[in-house]
Task: structure prediction
Amino acid sequence: MQKIGFIGLGIMGKPMAKNLLKAGYEVKAFDIVKAGVDEVVSAGALEGKSNRDVAAFADVVITMVPNSPQVKEAVLGTDGALFGAKPGTIFVDMSSINPIASREICAEVEKKGCFMIDAPVSGGEPKAIDGTLAIMAGGKEEVFNKVKDILAVMGSSVTLCGDIGAGNTTKLANQVIVAANIAAVSEALVLGKKAGVKPEAIYQAIRGGLAGSTVMDAKAPMMMDGNFKPGFRINLHIKDLNNAIDTAHTVGAPLPLTSSVMEMMQWLKANGYETEDHSSLVRYYESLSGTDVRREK
Result:
């Protein structure tokens, strides 16, 4: 069984690493935040002293960090994982970053005789915990096949979407759809409330029809309960939409809806809600309308 190095033990990384341990993999873990390391070590992982130390142990190095600069630092930076890796090591970046950065990092990894795929995820903390993430990958098929079983421990669907960078391009498409869907749910529930119909009644009436969605089922109850504990934070969704817009500008794809939702999220950030769950997008509509969509007690 392959030895795994895991770098990045935040909201998503911790449960993902724990699921690998439950499946019997030997895991050595590292994060610049010691509390995350301690929690995963208590679940059976070995404690890594640095990115380089983790890679020296591993056959497969997984990174799960916030954005492109952090991936580059973890892999290519001073004491980076690439400098501890032996030839043939496979790097699996499960962060959500700009696909151009994925290709740049992969080029450096391959110069060292190693391999890389990008494999971002969707599903948030609940699906990270129960191992049912949707994983979208980019890279060479023969490399993907060598780590597919590892990915399947963390996700219920694992799909190779194309060459390196294709996973992150697919994730950006996912984040565009999720953002627009949350905004639409928020808009609709506020419309109903202002027109005198209970948001709960609207949700129950339409969730089984064409308007129903996984996003609605996950986020509408949170909106109605005023529960904005982060499964996926506003500031991370802003990061993803920035990457989507940057990529769109590069390839010439129009993103007018995405740009509108981005401005709503920037309002949330400016008003101190950036660490809340992205379902708090409803706060923008509540502020404009002078109402809220909370359930009646």
